[in-house]
Amino acid sequence: MLDIKVLRENPDAARAGAIKKRLPDRAQAVDRALAIDAELRALTPKLDGMRGEQKNASKALGKLSAAEREPFLQKQKELKAEIGVLEEREKQLEADLKQQLSLVPNIPDEDVPEGKDDTENQETKRWGSVRDFGFTPKGHDEIAEAQGWLDTKRASDMAGSRNYFLFGDLALLHDAVLRFAVDLLVGRGFTAVDPPLLVRDAAMFGTGFFPGGEEQTYRAEKDELNLIGTAEVPVTSLHSGEMLAEDQLPKKYVARSMCFRREAGTYGKDQRGLYRVHQFQKVEQVIVDIADKARSIAHHHDIVKNAEDLLQACELPYRIVAVCGGDLGVPQAMKYDIETWMPSRGNYCETHSASRFYDYQARRLSLRYRPKDGGKVLFCHTLNNTVIASPRVLIPLLENHQQKDGTVRLPQVLRPYLGGREVLGRPIW
RNA sequence: GGAGAGGUGGCAGAGUGGCCUAUUGCAUCACCUUGCUAAGGUGAAGUACCGGCAACGGUACCGGGGGUUCGAAUCCCCCCCUCUCCGCCA
Fold this sequence. Notes:
Elements (H helix, E strand, L loop, with lengths): L3 H6 L1 H10 L3 H39 L3 H38 L18 E6 L12 H7 L3 E2 L1 H7 L5 E2 L1 H19 L4 E3 L4 E2 L1 H6 L12 E2 L4 E3 L4 H5 L6 E3 L5 E10 L18 E11 L3 H21 L4 E5 L11 E9 L4 E12 L1 H6 L2 E3 L7 E2 L1 E10 L3 H7 L7 E2 L13 E2 L5
Parallel strand pairs: 4-9, 8-14
Antiparallel strand pairs: 1-11, 2-3, 5-7, 6-7, 9-10, 10-16, 11-12, 12-13, 13-16, 14-15, 17-18
The structure holds one RNA strand of 90 nucleotides.
């Protein structure tokens, strides 16, 4: 959520931001919010005056005897009725304002490239070289099925498409890479978190997934809870409603959790293998810090670096793209995606997503801190990035490190998690 | 699932219809005192919105929402959360 003051002072920036994100209907929310705000600003002083009058009269009444009160009571009742009508209007306007304001997207930063969708994201870095196999490489699903590591057929029969069973060494590799990611971040001062997976609407709203993301979310209607699509939701909401002290900041968390996504509207897309599935595990890094743009940007680079270091340790070629306006989500101010080379897809594909929000989420969550210098209470800045998401990362791991005979070479850093083994699987081909 | 007790400012904790403009303590900030330390004294200070260049003034806020009343932290209803006991259970 943006500050209504920002909208008053610079509505053009908010409108232009929505346009840059290719969300023209959200740009209209700026004007609707301002219209409601104007009416509210006319109403509030009037109501305040009336309430003051009522309050003073009540106080005077309290000092009178029952008989003396009588003549004044009628007037008080009339005033009360008048106030009641206006208060109802005020309440309606406040609710409408919050609704419209929550539809206004965060303003994309200057370093967000113009563009309509993910085809116009801008590459900023490339690391590693695409391997020359010397044989025809197989897809991850082919390798995994041949090794007896993967069954999507039975999973789909039982649970619907985009589900999977992992078995044996692939199930262990899945756990190993997640565990490695947690250990890497804990070693860099992040606090490990195991968060709730079912959350109330307030957490979904606060992190900016609602309104808008309802179709993407599994909902437990009976309990009015939502299955999280990312640990960003519970972890960023962790200090919601709190007033932190500046010396408690920054808060750095690394959460490993299950993630659930309906993937509605993606029929036919990425249907095979482990790329797009309904449930997966993700290790997510979340930072909450003071309201300082330069520090947010520095954190942003740091969390991208953490993910890069993990990919480099796993010997996986990747590139970084600056996500363009049209591909940017509603709450983000700027986002880098990291795309890892997947031989079967012949392309770099998204495995990580690093976002900075400034105070957009914090305002929705009421996540504030008291500055050391005793100044005004401020909203925090928040950021997050994937460290690893699996089984998606198993695609590049299997495909880039496959050998001619169908076995898979393990990167050095993962070996301790798999009993010191250097190779997984048995020769097939 | 059943029964009971609670939720008050950054924290602790008083407050059972008008003297609440929320007592007090801790922590915070400023100044003073005691040769250091420990401690003591005086004062300032909640959050949001509105008006004002400002000092300041007004209104709202006592877990959330609704109600009763001229007037609600206080009484009533619904919801959320915490604690205790019972039941069930990995």
